[in-house]
Specification:
homodimer; three-stranded antiparallel beta sheet; 7 strands; DNA-binding
DNA sequence: TCTTTTGGTATCGATTCGAAACATAATTAA
DNA sequence: TTAATTATGTTTCGAATCGATACCAAAAGA
């Protein structure tokens, strides 16, 4: 059962990642879920930086995530900004304090050292395999899909990495195009 | 930053694993930590199937794990057995109900499908890489080491997969030798 | 206009988790 | 032997997660 072994190792490494994070977060008086939220906000685009977007990505109910965001706001890691056109919506922005925390904890202490013996070729192969597993699994799960903007069906290239979203009509910078979008199709 | 990308993918797959488990466990009225405990007990040997062993492996305080084990016992997934020689110690055994749950959830639904396109060669390479990362990281972390019995310094081979533990002097079956031990050195 | 949908918040109960205190048994030192 | 220390496990406390549910307000549709 080689499939099972691969699963076991990914799961165990994942567990160690969470353990390292949990211990590191104690100093900041934060819970694991808070880091998950911050990591998502750092990676998502401006259509997806709302409580609902966080809830869908983390597959947690919005009522629950509302509480976690409240904590993050109180502690100065997140700022809320009302949407200009839709008064129901709230956009969430990371503070510098949050960015510093992410820089420190991604990847967690020691992980990079563990990769030191890998060649560039091995890394590329490993990365490709992991990407495949995740992509195939996402398809099998048939869940709400999140994807990187510039690989979306709505994305219209405008050259030099910039583009336009066919769904909203808005222009997208090169940076925008690299981020995760909840409207991804 | 290819290291970072590899980390990101392992972390994300790990997150999806936990999400699938969390949803599946709702039906059984169990929390994620309960499955972690059951998985450890299924993999550890008779020197390590105690509350303390669980706590060390999961890197959670023993007071916390004591509560989780209480739940598992009440719900019929675990049975406690007093140690014959040390009256402080308690050994934890999985019930058939627990074994059935593990069989169903490991790996979680859909994961095997995601591996379908891999060749035997690719799988072997991937497995080797993951094994390396975990091993190197464990060394870098310098934490309490857990390891498979037959790779331990105390293990003395007796042929045909069986052996003897140089620490306790006890005989070890072929099955024992494949399990995780907290006395691993 | 009326209804439905969507985004967000608030509250409840069960549970996790770290921390600390505690009880008991085993081990070590005097 | 006796006393101090260490190890295993339980209990209790407070803060937080999480699912479930109800609720409010704004937007979208009929």
């Amino acid at each position: 059962m080689p499939d099972n072994l691969i699963f076991e190792f990914i799961e165990r490494i994942g567990y160690v990642i969470r353990t390292e994070w949990r211990k590191a977060l104690l100093e900041y008086d934060l819970q694991p879920v808070h880091l998950d939220v911050l990591r998502y906000l750092a990676a998502c685009n401006r259509y997806s930086d709302t409580p609902q977007g966080v809830a869908e990505y983390l597959e947690i109910t919005k009522g629950t995530i509302s509480q976690s965001i409240k904590q993050l706001e109180t502690k100065g890691f997140v700022e809320k900004q009302a949407d200009a056109s839709d008064r129901r919506m709230v956009h969430l922005h990371l503070t510098e304090k949050a960015q510093a925390l992410l820089d420190k904890l991604t990847p967690p202490p020691g992980f990079d050292d563990a990769m030191r013996n890998f060649s560039g070729q091995e890394e590329a192969a490993l990365l490709g395999n992991l990407r495949d597993i995740l992509a195939q699994w996402q398809i099998a799960r048939k869940r709400q899909r999140f994807g990187v903007c510039h690989t979306c069906r709505h994305y219209q290239s405008g050259g030099a990495g910039t583009g336009q979203c066919g769904l909203t009509g808005e222009g997208l910078s090169a940076e925008d195009s690299q981020k995760i979008c909840r409207e991804f199709t």
